[in-house]
Design goal:
The complex is a heterodimer.
Chain A lengths: L1 E6 H11 L4 E4 L6 H14 L2 E2 L5 H13 L4 E6 L2 H4 L1 H10 L5 E7 L12 H8 L3 E2 L4 H18 L3 E6 H4 L1 E7 L18 H4 L3 H24 L4 E3 L4 E6 H9 L8 E5 L1 E2 L3 H10 L2 E5 L5 H7 L8 E3 L14 H7 L26 H12 L7 E3 L24 H11 L5 E6 H17 L5 E6 L2 E2 L5 E2 L4 H10 L7 E4 L6 H13 L4 E6 L3 H13 L9
Parallel strand pairs in A: 2-3, 2-4, 4-5, 5-7, 6-7, 10-11, 10-13, 13-14, 15-16, 16-17, 17-21, 20-21
Antiparallel strand pairs in A: 1-8, 6-12, 9-11, 18-19
Helix pairs in contact in A: 1-2, 1-7, 3-5, 11-14, 15-19, 16-17
Chain B lengths: L14 E8 L4 H14 L4 E6 L8 E8 L12 E6 L2 H6 L4 E10 L6 H6 L6 H11 L3 E4 L1 H8 L5 H11 L7 H10 L6 H18 L10
Parallel strand pairs in B: 1-4, 4-5, 5-6
Antiparallel strand pairs in B: 1-3, 2-3
Helix pairs in contact in B: 1-7, 5-8, 6-7, 6-8
Classes of the chains: A alpha/beta, B alpha/beta.
């Protein structure tokens, strides 16, 4: 055993390595990115596979395929990534796993860097799969180890659910010593029964029945789990899960008379809940995300004679992230502010970097549109979403990965003109190619500006799977007309010619794709530093 | 801020350090150096970091809670130490200070994009400092730009500030322990520059700290 200071994300990754995975699969997304990156950095030394996938659906399917072939797999993503992966996720409960499959999802309550704050526990219940919800970095490690065993024991994928402040905080974690040498990959297990994995209706009906029948075994496991703890004391009871447990236990010294239930495993351990509810009349439920436990405890009609308080009653805010002070207040203690929140300080919102090529693209776009009264410009997800803010004010929408192209095509069909969209290279490869096939087939009267900086900038300059000439080849292959496929170089000195090019393509009554191509300044700097660190020749003298 | 009595367990045994600055200044790295020093000296620590979109020139903060805490949160009135890598960001952290908070701040401004775009000036430094001092009189200021210039290490601002923090003797380990943690986590070719920045930061902090609360403005 050894101690390491690890992020919650890293503790999950280390546990997966120690559990003997054959590979990790992911698409970058805050706050889950570091799970995959930790494995990636150790992939060669540990003899595991770690390649970024095109999107979360692909990542999930690759992981499922690895399990089919008999090796354990870790797939990680942010909460909204699971929407993209929802199709294979839901059906993988029916196929079963053959070898352990763990899905680590990092939710983002408070939306620090996300477009919503959906709670992945709802998804797991929807799919009938178990969830393990750690409250500390050590539990991130221990529960991920357990998740692989549970996955194989129950023949189901298992979700490990994190939230931003757990994923992105560090603490001491006791981990197992690495095996002395990377073992040669074991012989793949024989392939599973094809009838379990081929979800034709006749097979799927049988498998779904098995999934439903598995639920009571999962509940038994949850009720027996030593990670859930119940402590009976006073008439007031607190039920807490995940990170919220920390806030409750920090408040404990003055509330030691409370009865307590810590929930770590799902399905919700009903026997323990029953024990606490039988003992207490006043129950406070503290959980990060949706009022998941609280609403199930209430049912439709509530519990006669019991007061159940939490997010549904306003004891805790219905939206946003929990804080220790909010939890203190819900438990009846109000903190008093002495130094009021600063008013009138110049805010420092995130902005595009100095020298960012996106800024030059937006400036050219503004010139091209200066005489247009009501352009519809659909935005997408990446650093360039910041183009919606001043001083650019260039975008009208940001919904989900790849939505810009499909929404633009929809607007064209409503008769809007001119219609443009702005999408990055990695987002395009993630979810923009499929809608472009349809727009190209219809020769829709719209202009796609594909900002190609050859990296995934927002999440820390991970490698994009195709940029430059390869990206152009993909565009041609999708059916984009060569005569309206052009490349511009977003530089300040080219502002006028770039704006003119955009204007020409807007005037073209059909589909145009303008690739605005220049490398991300952050990625360029990072690459130069890596070259220098590697001791390679550096001609720039930087 | 008035905390409920024993509101958060054994708070007295803990040291809550809040590090604030602007994306790219090395806020998260500074926290990791402190975390490494805690690990090496046998102190339990929980580190929090908030980033994502804030990497792009936005406000960034990191927390280091030493001494058996459950969470890395530092709430209003809870910071025992504030290490500010940028003066406006230090002021922004004022609600988290209490009357005994020890504040160490850089006096080198990073002008917010919004101000420069609107052609508005950065707030006068003396006003920023006196507003901080009104909440937390124990304030140490550092001309970090001059220090990193003198050290010949442009990107060692965070390490210079750590040197200053170590010189104040508020940490549960000596400056040498923090330096060896920094050195262990620094690529070889930056070690010498970081060392100069760490030492210059420490010397400057010692020179500027006076025991009496009513010391002259810096």
């Amino acid at each position: 055993m050894r101690d390491e200071v690890l992020l919650g994300d890293e503790a999950v990754a280390q546990a997966a390595l120690d559990a003997g995975i054959g590979g990790a699969f992911s698409y970058p997304g805050t706050p889950a990115t570091e799970i995959f990156e930790y494995v990636e950095a150790r992939a060669a030394a540990c003899g595991v596979s770690a390649k970024w996938s095109a999107n979360e659906k692909v990542a999930y399917e690759e992981a499922l395929g690895m399990c089919f072939a008999g090796r354990r797999a870790l797939v990680s993503m942010k909460h909204v990534g699971l929407n993209v992966a929802a199709d294979p996720f839901m059906s993988s409960a029916l196929t079963g796993v053959h070898a352990g499959l763990v899905l680590a999802v990092a939710d983002d309550p408070g939306m620090h860097s996300s477009q919503n704050e959906q709670d992945s526990r709802c998804y797991a219940e929807f799919a009938h799969i178990p969830v393990l919800e750690p409250s500390s970095q050590q539990e991130c490690y221990d529960l991920t180890r357990l998740a692989f065993d549970l996955s194989e024991e129950m023949d189901t994928p298992v979700m490990v659910r994190l939230v931003t402040r757990l994923a992105h905080s560090r603490s001491n974690v006791r981990v197992e010593d690495a095996p002395p040498a990377p073992e040669p990959a074991p012989e793949p297990r024989p392939t599973p029964d094809w009838r379990d994995w081929t979800l034709l209706p006749m097979n799927a009906r049988r498998r779904f029945l098995e999934v439903v029948e598995r639920q009571h075994r999962l509940l038994e496991h949850s009720e027996r789990s030593p990670f859930n703890t119940v402590h009976l004391a006073g008439n007031r009871g607190v039920i807490a899960s995940g990170l919220a447990w920390n806030y409750v236990s920090e408040a404990l010294s003055s509330f030691a008379l409370e009865s307590l239930l810590k929930i770590v495993t799902y399905p919700i351990p009903v026997a323990l809940v029953r024990k606490l509810v039988a003992h207490c009349d006043d129950i406070v439920v503290v959980e990060e995300g949706q009022p998941f436990i609280e609403s199930r405890l209430n049912g439709l009609l509530g519990l006669p004679g019991k007061s159940i308080r939490g997010k549904l009653t306003g004891a805790l805010p219905r939206t946003g992230e929990l804080t220790p002070d909010l939890v203190l207040a819900a438990l009846g203690r109000e903190a008093v502010l002495e130094n009021p929140v600063e008013q009138g300080l110049a805010p420092r919102p995130p902005g595009l970097c100095r020298g960012c090529p996106h800024a030059d693209t937006f400036r050219a776009l503004a010139v091209a549109l200066k005489n247009v009264r009501k352009p519809a410009v659909f935005g997408d997800i990446g650093c360039y979403t910041l183009g919606a803010l001043p001083p650019y004010g260039a975008l009208n929408t940001c919904v989900d990965m790849g939505a810009s192209i499909a929404m633009a095509h929809g607007a064209v069909q409503a008769g809007a003109w001119p219609v443009l969209c702005v999408i990055g290279d990695s987002t395009f490869l993630h979810s923009g190619m499929t809608p472009l096939v349809g727009a190209a087939r219809a020769n829709a009267d719209m202009t796609v500006i594909l900002v190609d900086n050859e990296t995934v900038g927002m999440t820390g300059t991970q490698e994009s799977i195709a940029g430059g000439e390869r990206l152009l080849a993909i565009l041609r292959g999708l059916g984009v007309d060569e005569s309206h496929l052009c490349v511009i170089d977003p530089l300040p000195q080219r502002l006028a010619e770039n704006a003119a090019q955009i204007e020409r393509e807007i005037q073209h009554r059909g589909l145009s794709v303008i690739v605005s191509r220049r490398a991300c300044v952050q990625a360029t700097r990072r690459q130069a530093e890596q070259r220098l660190a590697a001791g390679g020749a550096c001609c720039s003298g930087a | 801020m008035t905390r409920p009595e024993a509101g958060r367990a054994a708070a007295a045994a803990r040291l809550r350090i809040l590090i604030v600055g602007v994306g790219g200044q090395g806020v998260l790295t500074a926290a990791r150096h402190l975390g490494e020093a805690c690990l090496r000296t046998g102190h339990e620590a929980v580190l929090g970091q908030l980033h994502g979109m804030s990497q792009r020139g936005g406000s960034v903060e990191s927390t280091v809670v030493v001494g058996g805490a459950e969470s890395s949160f530092i709430e209003e009135g809870e910071a025992d130490v504030v290490l500010g890598l940028e003066p406006l960001e230090t002021l922004r952290a004022r609600p988290r200070m209490h009357a005994q908070t020890r504040v160490v701040t850089s006096t080198t401004p990073v002008v917010p994009h919004l101000l420069s775009q609107m052609g508005k000036p950065y707030p006068p430094l003396p006003e920023i400092l006196s507003a901080i001092r009104a909440a937390a009189p124990d304030l140490t200021t550092l001309d970090s730009a001059a220090i990193v210039r003198q050290a010949g290490a442009r990107r060692a601002l965070n390490v210079a500030m750590l040197g200053a923090l170590a010189a104040l003797e508020v940490l549960p380990f000596p400056a040498a322990a923090l330096w060896s943690a920094v050195a262990a986590r620094t690529p070889e070719r930056f070690v010498a520059g970081n060392r100069r920045a760490f030492e210059l930061g420490g010397a400057a902090a010692k020179a500027r700290t006076s025991p009496a609360p009513g010391r002259p403005a810096c």
